[in-house]
Structures are given as C-alpha cells and as structure tokens.
Amino acid sequence: MDIDTTRPVMVTGATGYVAGWLVKRLLDAGLTVHAAVRDPDNAEKRGHLDAMAEDAPGSIRYFGADLLTPGSYKEAMAGCSIVFHTASPFTIAVKDPQKDLIEPAQLGTRNVLESVNDTPSVERVVLTSSCAAIYGDNADLADTPNGVFTEEIWNSSSSVDHQAYSYSKLLAEKEAWKIADAQSRWRLVTVNPSLVIGPGTNAKATSESFNIVKQIGDGTMRMGIPDIGFGAVDVRDVAEAHVRAAFVPEAEGRFIVSGHNTGFLEMARTLLDRYGDAYPIPRRKLPKWLVWLVGPLTTKGLTREFISRNVDLPWRADNRRSRDILGMTYRPLEESMNDFFAQLIDSGRLKKRTA
Fold first, then answer.
1. pLDDT tens track for 203-262
2. Kind of pairing between the strands at 260-263 and 229-234
C-alpha cells in the first residue's frame, strides 16, 4: 500500500474515538492532516492530537466546521486528496432521535459530500458507516440468504421509533451513495464496523462503547448480563481499515470491518482472568424472561421489542472483503477488552470493589 504524502487529507470529527486513532495513523505515515472540529480553539479537546503530532513525521492543522452548517468544511477540504468523514453521533438514549441522531448523521453527510463535489482536489471519500446500516436487530439474520450479514444487505427493520441509531446510520450511508453515484470524479468507500472497542487516544473520551464496557466492570451487570449477540472490532483495527480504504487502489464499495462474532457474555469473560477478583464482572447470563420483565423498567431505551428481537439471538457477519481486498487482520478479542478495561481503570472511571 503506497501512501501519497504530498497532499493533505481531511478528517471530520477529528477529536472522536475512531478518528483519534485514524489521525495518529495518518500522522505516523507522514501526512498533513486537516482536522475539522467544532471548536478548533479548544486546547483541552485537541490536546491528545497535538501530543501525537509532536512525535510524528506528519503535521496537523485545525479548522472550524459543523455538521449542520452548509459549506463549513470547504476551507478544511481545500487541496485535500482524501476526505475521511467520521463525524456522527453514537449514542442510544436520546430525547429526540430525529434531532439528536438522524439530522446530524444524514444532513451532516450531505453537507460534507456537497463540499466534496465543489472541491476538485478530492479523489476519494472514506465514510465511517456501521454494521447498523446493514442490520437493525439480530432477528434480521433469519432473513439473510445464507444466515450471515454481508455488504449486499441493507437494514430494513429500523425506524425513528425502533433502533433510531441504526436508522440514522442507514439514512446517512444511503445519502452518501446517492450523492456519490450522481458524479464520476471521486470514489466513495464505506467502512462498516461492528461494535468498536479498545482504548481511546483520549482517555477522557465519551462514546457508547465506553459506557458499555464500564457497565461490565462497575457493578451495573453484577447479577448477570443479557445474552445479546453482536460483532466487535478493535478501534485500532477500524482506523487501519480507514487508511487502507483510502490508499488501496482496488478498494471500492462497502466493507464490513468486524473481528469477532461475539456477545456481552463472551466479552465479559475475557476479563475474568485478570480482573475477576477485583471487579464485579458478570459471570452468568440473565434469562430472557427476566430481561423482558425488568429490562424496560431499569434501562432507558431497552424496549420489549428490542428484547424480543435481540436477546438470546446470535449475530454473524462475513468480513472476507476486508481481509481479501484491504488485507485486514484483526486483534484478539481478549487484547481489545483488556486494553480497554485497563484504560478505564487508569483514568479513574472504574474502581475496585470494596467488599
């Protein structure tokens, strides 16, 4: 893989969880990174990126931009050969799904790609999509041709009222392909990760991934954990997939980026050998009837429809395109989880049990 370092690249949402590792990888490769962020003067939020740039052969420049402000990415994009669009909210419990999830995802994607159309230097766009654009619930697996999720499948079960986050990712990626297919100058490649785990470049970062793993270790799930299947992938591998999607000449279309077909219980078990004595990590699964009974009463956003269509159901996806075309290899689940858990401890988010 040859990486052209003669022209800058742009990263939207550069202070984000996935974007942090992506920026590091680009800087280490010697690239000039145009970091598009909401507040470029916020030294605290960009501090970890500045530290990366100090020790890297590449360099970083900051530009102010907002997903919902038309044209705000044009300055950052000028002269760039690649645009990495990573900015999109990842949260489950929101008051207004339309305003908090769908509009930033769909309209933000439209805003960025309309600026791409106006920027002649851009040759390729790498969009951070999600496996959520491929499926909405584990029950959807029963309707797949071979009992596995592939890049040919699109989410058909989510809506603004059910799995709104997944619906936002579907609409955003559909919007991207609509704009890309209407022109022929630049190429769109989408990276579709499953649940992203692993340590952040910023230990104080906020993401639903941090919340999930924190709850595995803070006692929230000490009595047991629902058996929900899903895919998982290390954040460092996701960043590498973005770079390969940008610079591997054959890369085109969608790529499922997922290292493991797993679930909550298996993820928790990877932590037991090292942390099981000191932290209340769940060791057993909760029966579905109990999750059905008490889940909606104790967990915001956990509906009985979600429980019916996801608990005690497996998740399987085919990651062969990412391995065959991008040349991806994936870290062991144990490595990702233990590195992530260690960071949560070191940053003070997790405390040892007192009794």
1. 877 778 888 899 999 998 888 999 999 999 999 999 999 999 999 999 999 999 999 999
2. antiparallel
Give the C-alpha separation, 311 to 287, whole Å: 9
Q: Are 330 and 237 in contact (CB under 8 A)?
A: yes
pLDDT tens, residue by residue, 68-113: 899 999 999 999 999 999 987 666 666 788 888 888 889 999 999 9
List the domains of the chain with CATH numbers. Answer: 9-196+234-257+315-330 (3.40.50.720)
What pLDDT does residue 98 have? Answer: 87
The whole-model pTM stands at: 0.95
CB 227 within 8 A of CB 269: no
Count CA within 13 A, CB hemisphere, residue 82.
27
Write b or e for each residue in 120-141: b if 16 or more Cβ atoms lie within 10 A of its Cβ, otherwise e: eebbbbbbbbbbbbbbbbbebb
Query: Predicted confidence band at 328 (pLDDT cuts at 50, 70, 90)?
Result: very high
Interatomic CA distance for residues 159 and 12, integer angstroms = 26
Q: Which two tokens stand for residue 53?
A: 């740039």
Could you give the CA distance from residue 279 to residue 258 in angstroms, rounded to a whole number?
Answer: 28
The candidate with the shortest Cα–Cα distance to 7, out of 92, 123, 87, is 123
Q: Average pLDDT, stretch 269-285?
A: 95
- Other Cβ atoms less than 10 A from the Cβ of 300: the count is 8
- Strands of 14-161, DSSP E: 32-37, 59-64, 82-85, 124-128
Contact partners, residue 136, CB within 8 Å, separation at least 6: 155, 156, 157, 158, 162, 163, 166, 167
Beta strand pairing call for 9-12 and 32-37? parallel
The phi, psi pair for 163, rounded to 5°, reads: 60, 55
CA distance 142 to 149: 10
Question: What is residue 56's three-state secondary structure?
Answer: coil
